[in-house]
Amino acid sequence: MAILRADNMNSLFTYKTALSGLVFLASALLVAQDIQPRVYAPAPTGLNLITLGYGYSEGAVLFDKTIQIDNAYANIHGFSAAYSRSTALFGKAGRFDVAVPLVTGNWEGELLGEIQTTSRFGIGDPVLRYAYFISGAPALSREEFAGFQPKTIVGVTIRMQIPLGEYDPNKLINLGSNRWVFSPQIGIWHVVGNFTFEAYTGIWLFTDNKEFLGSQVRTQDPLFTFQLHVSYEFQGGIWIAVSSRQSLGGAVAIDDGYRFVPESNNRVGVSLSIPIRPRYYLKLIATTGVSATIGNDYNTLGIAWQAVF
Question: In this structure, which CATH number among 2.40.128.130, 3.40.50.1000, 1.20.1250.20, 3.90.580.10 belongs to the domain 15-308?
């Protein structure tokens, strides 16, 4: 079991505005299935981004029934380092992202009727992602991009979670998931005045964990996700976004036995981007679970410092 995971468009689309769309991404990467606005905000090719982030999550953790822990509660501190670069492919804009989390946390719950506590510290599963803008965002240099006024962008994303995080098959709580995770997604990004509207739909595909609590095989069905985002940009490049994410499916089973209740979760969140200097940004993120069956009943607060070059 893994841890809780687990830009105004005014009359001229300015260079600063483009950067504020790009720099949000890396910090969001580390929350594997959490809310992520501005995935398809365009940027000039050759732009690089370094992100250092911190997130704190706490709540009454809802494990699926393959993990026999009841009334679980956790508080988790996550530190992240990430790199992003905007790219060009077949004349279209794109973006490559890589992120690695360092996590420490404490868990408490009832195991076989007794209160148990544990703590973990280590590396979580790294995440790679490539976003490709198939319509509405041609590959442009920084000079060409200065006069670009995008209206509607359609993009696709492929995301991969690599099983390199801390994992012990003899423990119920782990920082890594000991399986590969792939997530293709398609999304649309549309500008109306100072507002940006976004809608994404994706699917999460999981390989088997063949070392679950020893040598058992834990399988999981595909998980479907839907995201909606509305953001508003103020003068000076500050923007705020309100978001919602719904996830459905993902039923789990052990050794091809009974498939436990699938996930049906909804989260909402607020994101705020503040330019500090021309190439530095501060990001503030808050999310919470609205409804949950598995793994969603927690609150998260995050902050990230980002540098563009």
Answer: 2.40.128.130
